[in-house]
Each structure stands twice: as C-alpha cells, then as structure tokens.
Amino acid sequence: MSHRIVPEAAFFDRRRFLETLGAGIAAAAASSCSREARSSEGMLSPPIDRSDVFPAARNLAHDLPSALSRRGLTPREKAASHGMFSEFLPGRGGEVWRYTEAFEAAPWKLQVAGACERPRVLDLDDLFAIAHEERVYHFRCVEGWAMNVPWTGFPLRKLLDTVRPLPSARFVVFTSAARPEEMPGVRESRYLRWPYVEGLRMDEAMSELTLVATGVYGRPLLKQHGAPVRIVVPWKYGYKSPKSIVRIELTSGAPRTFWQIRPHEYGFLANVNPNVPHPRWRQESSYWLDTGETFPTPIFNGYADEVGALYPDEPRTPRPPLRPGETAR
Prior knowledge:
- The protein is an alpha+beta fold.
- It has a single domain, classed as Oxidoreductase, molybdopterin-binding domain (Sulfite Oxidase, Chain A, domain 2).
- It contains 8 helices and 14 strands.
- Mean pLDDT is 88; it is low at 1-21 and 23-38.
C-alpha cells in the first residue's frame, strides 16, 4: 500500500470526478423518482372530475364482515396497480392501468332495457344524480387474491326500480364496453367473444349488497377499476362484477355469459365458497393482495348472514376436486 502524498492537481481532479459521479448518481436517482412519481400519478388519476359527488358519506351499516374487519383497507396504490380486466390485459392479472391510456370514460351512456315498463338511457349526470354512499367491501378474485376496498355508488335495486321490471324479468344481464381502438385486449384477443357479458338472477340483483359503483377510495373510478360505472357483487368472485358497463338488460331467460360462451371452468353462480374447488386449484384459502399473507376463505366471502338464504343448496361441506373440463357452480 502506498503512503505517498497525492499531488494537489491530482487530488482536485479526483475530487471533481467524485463530485461529478455523485451528481450523476443523484440526478439518476432524482430522474427515477420523477418517473415513479409520474407513473404513480398516472395510475391514480381518475378520468373524470366530480367534486360535487365525491367523497360521499360512508354507510357504516355496510362495513366489512367481522371476520375480515381487523385487516383494514388495502392500500389505494396496491389496489390500483393490480387487477383483472381482459379488455385491456387479457388472460391474466397484472398492471392493467398501463394499457388504459387511450380509453375514454366520458361522455358515457348506460342503456337499461328489456323486460321493463320504462326503459331508459342514462348519461353520467343521470347516474351521479342518484344519491351516492361509500361502502367498504371485501373483494375476492377467483385466482385467490383478496382486498378490502371502499366503493362509492348506490344499490342496483334503486336503478332497477326506476324502470319497473315486468313479472317476466328473472335475470339481469350486463354488457361492458368493447372498443378495439381504445382497448388493446379487445383488439388483440380475437379468440374471445366480445363484448364481456355477465348476469345475475333477479333476486341477486335486487339484494341490498349489489352495488352500482362509480367511485373508489373517495374519488371517481379509475380506468383500471372499470370507469366510469361498474357493478360490485361482494359475495361472488370478481369476474361477476363487470366493469365499464354500457347496457343493463332484464330478461326472462338465463344469459350466456362471457366465460360460458367458450368452454371454461367458471360457473354462472360463482359464489365465493371454500368448499367448491376450481378445476385447476383449490379455494380454501385466500391471500391479501398487498402482503401475500394467506387466510381461510369465508363462505360467501363473509356475507353469509346477508345472502346465504338465497342459496339453500350451496355446498356447506367440501366437495371433491373437479376434473378438467368440469364447470364450477
């Protein structure tokens, strides 16, 4: 090891080098932070502004099930960063928000038609004129991940009452937007039968829990959450809560839903039930989206007291695993 004195010029050259290197590292870190900030801002920016509606008062009568309330809310950033929305990111969950830039959430029209006395078409002003409230619901994806989310909206029953369903109306069918020019999943996944269609029995649709959601975390819905209007059915797997809906139709017969049109393992009822396995995995446990921590899956996603009576034949004991090709309930 040398102990020679470093010449003054070399010392200052070295010091300038280190200062330049430090400045470069700091600039790179600042640039990275700036990019992350811009990304976060884009991920969390609602596509519309309705400060006249949000935030809405929370309805404490519809809070989390007691077994899940200790967990608290899922962080807003985590809920916004991961989801299932095949119109943008088909076939898998992920960072849906990265594929939504071209999507236009306003203006918007929602048609309500079919077996009813007063069919109507609503724009966003019509939807936001209905009294809104916030509810915290437990959400469970069929793939196993779960979160606790504060949705803002109103019971679907309120909207259906305005169109006066006919006695023949036994099902409610939801159709989502399908815009190839704005939705890369629609444009690139020609093997899927668009648009996305889902449905509920009339008694399920009229449940006080079934929500027309226009907001999340006290602000209007983000694009990746289904802006500007979606359905939330908290006791069913997430695919039963269609996003960015453009049509609600009352029908006498059961609809052929998106996942039923192609041979698939997803059933029509789709109640969260640890006793009914998916053909490719079991459902006894769930895991929190933000931490990965697992916990036992509660039947009806924790809402058995509210909706259990609707399903007297729902399996309350474990069923054997389904074989490939079989369809879950």
